[in-house]
Amino acid sequence: MADPAQSSPQYAISAENLVRRFGEFTAVNDISFRVEKGEIFGFLGPNGSGKTTIIKMLTGLLPLTEGNAWVEGLDVRKDAEGVRERIGYMSQKFSLYDDLTVLENLRFYGRIYGLSAERMKRRIDEIVQLNGLAPYLNRLAAQLSGGWKQRLALGCAMLHEPKLLFLDEPTAGIDPVARRQLWDLLFELSGQGITFFVTTHYMDEAERCSHVAYIYYGKLIADGTPAELKLLPDVQPAGTDRIEIVTPQVTRALRLARHIPGIRSATIFGESIHALVEEHFNLADLRAQLQKDGITVTDIHPLTASLEDVFVELTYKHQALLEASRA
Amino acid sequence: MPNPFRGFGAVFYKEVLHVRRDPGTLFFSLVIPLLQMFVLGFGIDTNVRQVNTVVYNADGRQESRELIDRLKNSDTFHVVRYVQNDHDLNDMIIGGKARVGIKIPVDYSDRLIHKMSAQVLVLIDGSDSSVAGQAINVTTAIGLDESLRRAVTDSTAPFAVDMRPKLLFNPDSRSPNFFLPGLTAILLLNVTTFLTAFAIVREKERGTLEQLFVTPVRPFGLLLGKLLPYFFIGFFELCNILFFMRFVFRVPIHGNVFLLAFLSLPYIFVSLSLGMLISSKANTQGQAMQLAFLTILPSIFFSGYIFPRETMPAFFYGISFLVPASYFINITRGIILRGAGLQHLWLDGLALFAMGTFLLVIAARRFSNKIIMT
Lengths: 327, 374
Description:
A: alpha/beta, Rossmann fold, 2 domains, four-stranded antiparallel beta sheet, B: 2 domains
């Protein structure tokens, strides 16, 4: 029985207890989440943790072993066809036809979705304008750079005006400028009411999402706004503070820091160390102690958790749980 | 002095690992030669035996039945049917159901009893020279033997049983006439199966197939849309082959060339569908290539292109029914050499169409279940 709340038009995606097994291996283990309309939903997790599998389940490419899912109000198990009419999908590889021109690629997808000649012309004009493809219309897709391929792929995926777009690592392997431009485009489209389901490995991209979920080896271990996640007790346990130690000798400093009482955990972030310390930990003492051991301390200051901190903490915790359960 | 062999050990080590990781390639490169050896070793018996034969025994009395028994006992002839008139006799041969037709005249026994010479007509399908040669030799030998036997018991007897072989369809025994119609089937298979074998694999490799699967495109829409352009290419190639066969190699076409074109459609369809199935199974273009070659082999050996199908061991003869080229070679030789019509060949056309549909449905099922994605 479909729970009316789950198929309610408020949600772009509503997944309930999703399970996907491949033989003995459980790739997706009892995952539930909801994505509201107009959100940019960032779906994160290590490689092989089940992100692409979930996308395939939600787009009807892989049958669900267990659970239920509604996409744009349609039951994926019953109406995968209808789901595919309403969504757009862009894979990691910007799957375009290299030997077709930009215009030919767009027209092909227009035909696949059965757009009328009139609507096709209007949509291609709109997309070309939105994505700035005008100078490249007659160029072969193979000759485009990564950023332009990505824009073309996005254009192909949204030709039929879907209200929900799945983007599987849309910024993998493209340059930072193109990355920034894509996100500007996503915000603009999101403002027009389009929902995005985006997977990424970039933390700065995750910070830009309005809703973030983190999957770790088939389990959903975090789900909320970035601000909510930073306040999770697992990330910021009661009675602890987060500090940053800036030093040119990060590796040696890390080794030393891990043995200093009061420091619960420490990780390198570029030229600094992020550490979780007991409340009321004396930063001046720490600075003195490190300097005594020959470490040049440029700066020590309190820090609010970043999303990267969130995922690192959660990953450590679940790694420990995983190992404990195996032992 | 730098060592010119530097890196030999490392490359050797790496290459061995590649071979071990790719058992498919190893399997194909080792098994295909063995397969060919077994097929050629067991399947090919240059002694023609058990040739399909149709008999019109207008006489029907003791003497005539004895003659038929002798022919059957020679192991060269396998009587598939007894007919009651000349028309059926000819029809069986034109339709390719029999390669040899034997007609015993109504006065055969009478003439022998009256110590007169009796003529037996032996119609031989000349489109296969090895079969034709053997049929001529064996029938005349039996005629001679029968006559001698009578001469021994009765010295006044004349040369009694006079076998009259008559070579039909390819009276000059020109080898292009025999080989080119069969070759047409093999060449066409080469073009079509290979073209489509790459069609889907290429999209798999590029990742565009995954993209297509999240659109509302349906399996048959995808498969037939991919198939149709190659269908035209295949048909165009057929026309080229027929043109060169007729005007460069001067093979006369006895039947209706439009019928041949029409009946080639189901054959092109089945070879394209086979390519589609290969393409849905293979993961890389290399694999598709190997699988396509694997289908070419039986088409050459089991289709009757080189070796007559009837003379194969039962197992290989059974396989030959699963090879589309068998039916098409019957069609090409039938129309080109024997002047066969639709009434003789419709079943072959239908068999090809059925096979093509079957293969395409299997390929489509693999798509709708998304088996090829996992």
